[in-house]
């Protein structure tokens, strides 16, 4: 098969043959790919279009002719003639898609003679070669012109036969035997490398198979799309009128980055491309295929998307077909609200809501609840709806796993603190557990606890009803601390699952989930899964490359699988006698100016005190202008920087630089008459109240030369 389009710009057309046993989805995969490619792909159609004898065969009963009345020589001749005539048919597009390739001819003839003549698999294969011997030259040339792809249920012929027959309404003994022999012959051809491309379907949905098909075929021709909804999750919203579908879709768009699409738009867009004038008169299966096709095009055009919400589901049959095609890539969320609530929300009155409900119920919109993965009650406040949507959106991003554990005495804590933690766990994890997770964080988690300086920082996951008893337990065990301050953070399960935590707490939870904090707790059986953020989520801060820290944790829920730094900003600390409800940072750092643990600083260090000659007046035009203060904030003046535009470095000195411009600091000077404080907000040094012009504290570089600021 030649074509004038043989250059790099116009590559030669290709022919792709989809082979496989019955009910493996060959026809559906061809249809989805052909619809997606449009003009660039043509389907060759069924074999009975290529031999006029098929009309009489169908009139007399195809199954009866195939297995009873028709001679095997005639069956082989009709099949071979049809295959060869199809291969000679000219191309009408760059890519031609065939249902069953040339190797399937040999497998079909071998399975037929095995049933009719009672032959074994090897004998049937030899018999089929004899019957097809007159056409062997033409068949070999036709097979070389095809790119063969086979779809298999699995590698086991018996299991594959069972799966194929499970899709049939009625099964005769002859047909069951034919399918068993057909699976054996196809597996033999796969072993003989007659199919260069093979796909095992298993339990995967249609779109997942289509994605693998495209990945295999994309190198053959540039018109073949590369992927099919790869990595995209679809949340389909259903419900009756005024149940909150639009509110839910908008929240998913604004808060979770979903692309919000209307199902009506998707159907009409795909139908317009296919030349269908009234798509709503088509069957539910076709409508579902149109929705998937439009979604595929939209997501390919917006390749950065990984989450899409569609609304509203009104037809129960098309919803069921969407679930079969998309599988785990689809989450059906049904919003349920009482009739009184929906009538109160409607702007057109009670009758308007009732009329719309009748139209939707006629299409089965109320039955979609039976197919839904999530049923959301929306009679309460909007916050409840949003928290439920948070859980739906984050559940697929936050995988579950069981954290690793280690003994408490392996943390390197003082003996009294190990005893304190052990007794606290005994009191809170008995027959009626009060907590779901207890984690030691900070310096104690990293094995760097220092007596007299470090605090004991603890994270607890527990429900609100257990706080009273926990307060009593903390009061009873206060003496065991030996004067050590206890910083405790208490979160609920709902806060963890909905992500309603601060970024600092998210750091700690991510450390636990990623294994950077190795946990320890009660005997197995008490912990249960805890859902947290995975390491690939863009909402988690960058991870720190450090060896895993150790933490004493008793876990019953899954933490996130990310490994950010354990450093955190200031937190509210409480002693052991206080109620559990606040947190301490996971770490503390020693002051760089002190060699003993007598003082503590946060992760940041204060800017240096600038040194240099007495202040001098400079023209205002020579200053590098700083930020414009917003209303209600302290007004600050121009910024003085070095030649490279750098601000002061923590712990540096203006005269300690290694070369010109290094170590040069910057100062922010206030404007006149701004109600200035007595201390500068950046340097912490006293600032005299200024009158008249701005004053500039100039600095000198290491070589002693004056370093004047450069005009921007």
Question: Descriptors for this entry?
Answer:
Rossmann fold, five-stranded parallel beta sheet, 712 residues, 21 helices, 4 domains, alpha/beta, elongated
Number of helices: 21
Main beta sheet: 5 strands, parallel
Poorly predicted segments: 1-7, 522-529, 531-612, 614-710
Quaternary assembly:
single chain
- The general outline is elongated
Strand order of the largest sheet: 2-3-1-4-5
> Could you say what the CATH architecture of the largest domain is?
3-Layer(aba) Sandwich
Give the strand content: 5-15%
In total, the number of domains comes to 4
Total beta strand runs: 18
Q: Considering DSSP H and I runs of 4 or more, what fraction of the residues is helical?
A: 25-40%
Structural description of this entry:
This protein has 712 residues and is α/β, with parallel strands linked by helices. The chain has 4 domains: 14-220, Rossmann fold (3-Layer(aba) Sandwich), CATH 3.40.50.300; 233-395, Rossmann fold (3-Layer(aba) Sandwich); 408-590, no CATH class; 606-712, no CATH class. Helix content is 35%, strand content 12%. It has 21 helices and 18 strands. The protein has helices spanning 26-37, 53-60, 62-69, 72-88, 102-117, 121-131, 136-144, 157-166, 173-191, 206-217, 245-256, 263-274, 284-301, 316-326, 339-345, 350-362, 382-395, 415-428, 467-476, 493-498, 503-514; strands at residues 14-19, 41-43, 95-99, 147-152, 197-200, 233-239, 259-262, 307-313, 330-336, 374-377, 435-441, 456-462, 486-491, 517-518, 549-550, 553-555, 589-590, 600-601. Strands 2-3-1-4-5 form a 5-stranded parallel β-sheet, with helices on both faces. It has a 5-stranded parallel β-sheet with strand order 7-8-6-9-10, with helices on both faces. The chain has a 4-stranded mixed β-sheet with strand order 13-12-11-16. β12, α19 (467-476) and β13 (486-491) form a beta-alpha-beta unit. The two termini are 68 Å apart. Residues 1-7, 522-529, 531-612 and 614-710 have low confidence and may be disordered.
């Amino acid at each position: 098969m030649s074509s004038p389009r043989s250059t790099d710009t116009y590559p030669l057309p290709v022919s792709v043959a989809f082979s496989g046993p019955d009910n493996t989805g060959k026809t559906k995969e061809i249809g989805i790919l052909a619809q997606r490619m449009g003009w660039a792909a043509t389907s060759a159609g069924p074999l009975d279009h290529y031999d006029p004898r098929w009309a009489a065969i169908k009139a007399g009963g195809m199954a009866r002719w195939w297995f009873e009345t028709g001679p095997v020589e005639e069956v082989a001749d009709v099949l071979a003639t049809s295959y060869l005539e199809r291969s000679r048919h000219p191309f009408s597009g760059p890519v031609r898609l065939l249902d069953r390739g040339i190797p399937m001819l040999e497998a079909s003839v071998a399975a037929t003679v095995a049933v009719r003549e009672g032959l074994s698999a090897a004998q049937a294969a030899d018999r089929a070669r004899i019957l097809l011997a007159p056409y062997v030259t033409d068949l070999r040339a036709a097979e070389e012109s095809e790119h063969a792809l086979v779809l298999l249920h699995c590698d086991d012929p018996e299991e594959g036969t069972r799966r194929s027959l499970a899709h049939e309404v009625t099964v005769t003994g002859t047909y069951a035997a034919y399918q068993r022999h057909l699976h054996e012959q196809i597996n033999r051809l796969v072993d003989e490398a007659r199919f260069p491309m093979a796909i095992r379907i298993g339990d995967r949905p249609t779109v997942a198979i289509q994605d693998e098909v495209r990945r295999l075929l994309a190198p053959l021709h540039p018109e073949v799309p590369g992927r099919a909804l790869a990595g995209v999750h679809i949340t389909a919203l259903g419900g009756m009128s005024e149940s909150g579908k639009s509110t839910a879709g908008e929240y998913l768009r604004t808060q979770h980055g979903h692309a919000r699409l209307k199902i009506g738009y998707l159907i009409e867009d795909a139908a317009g491309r296919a030349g269908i004038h009234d798509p709503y008169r088509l069957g539910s299966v076709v409508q579902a295929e149109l929705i998937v096709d439009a979604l595929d095009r939209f997501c390919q055009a917006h390749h950065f998307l990984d989450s899409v919400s569609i609304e509203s589901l009104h037809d129960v049959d098309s919803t069921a077909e969407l679930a079969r095609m998309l599988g785990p890539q689809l989450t059906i969320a049904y919003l349920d609200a009482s009739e009184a609530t929906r009538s109160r929300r409607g702007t057109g009155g009670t009758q308007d809501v009732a009329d719309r409900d009748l139209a939707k119920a006629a299409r089965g919109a109320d039955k979609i609840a039976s197919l839904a993965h999530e049923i959301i009650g929306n009679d309460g406040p909007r916050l409840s709806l949003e928290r439920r949507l948070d859980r739906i959106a984050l559940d697929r991003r936050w995988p579950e796993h069981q954290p690793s554990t280690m003994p408490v005495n392996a943390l390197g804590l003082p003996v009294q603190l190990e005893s304190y933690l052990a007794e606290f766990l005994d009191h809170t994890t008995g027959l009626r557990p009060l907590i779901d997770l207890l984690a030691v964080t900070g310096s104690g988690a990293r094995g760097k606890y220092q007596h007299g300086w470090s605090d004991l920082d603890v994270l607890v996951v527990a429900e609100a009803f257990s706080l009273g008893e926990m307060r009593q337990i903390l009061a009873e065990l206060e003496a065991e601390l030996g004067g050590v301050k206890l910083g405790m953070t208490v979160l609920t399960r709902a806060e963890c699952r909905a992500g309603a935590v601060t970024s600092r707490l998210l750091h700690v939870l991510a450390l636990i989930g990623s294994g950077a904090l190795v946990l320890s707790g009660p005997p197995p059986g008490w912990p249960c899964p805890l859902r947290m953020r995975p390491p690939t989520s863009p909402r988690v801060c960058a991870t720190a490359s450090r060896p895993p820290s150790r933490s004493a944790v008793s876990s019953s829920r899954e933490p996130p699988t990310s490994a950010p730094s354990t450093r955190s900003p200031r937190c509210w600390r409480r002693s052991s006698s206080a109620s559990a409800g606040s947190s301490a940072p996971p770490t503390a750092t020693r002051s760089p100016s002190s060699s003993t643990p007598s003082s503590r600083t946060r992760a940041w260090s204060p800017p240096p005190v600038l040194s240099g000659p007495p202040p001098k007046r400079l023209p205002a035009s020579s200053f590098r202008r700083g930020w414009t203060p917003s209303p209600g904030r302290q007004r600050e003046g121009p910024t003085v920087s070095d030649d490279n535009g750098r601000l002061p470095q923590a712990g540096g000195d203006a005269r300690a630089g290694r070369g010109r411009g290094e170590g040069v600091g910057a100062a922010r000077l206030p404007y006149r008459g701004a109600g200035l404080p007595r201390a500068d907000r950046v340097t912490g040094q006293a600032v005299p109240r200024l009158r008249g012009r701005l004053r500039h504290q100039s600095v000198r570089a290491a070589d002693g030369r004056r370093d004047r600021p450069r005009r921007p």
